Amino acid sequence: MVGMPTRMSAALSNIASSDIMLFVGQLTPTYRIPFLMYVDGYEYKEIAADLGIPIGTVKSRIFNARLQLRTKLEFIR
To answer: Which domains, ranges and CATH numbers included, belong to the chain?
Structure first.
């Protein structure tokens, strides 16, 4: 069946998810907190209000968190 995940692809997906969470945990709180809030569905303005920082700073921190994660994940490919 085309498009159906195999057990192997599901296992690899789980490994990737655990690696991602490991790397997210290694981010400093400055980047980790806004990134996780964004992933949880908060809007930029909500994150900014909750953390007491400008929206531009929120966007910058989330962007930088993504860059850091992307760099770390390139090593496990």
So the answer is: 28-77 (1.10.10.10)
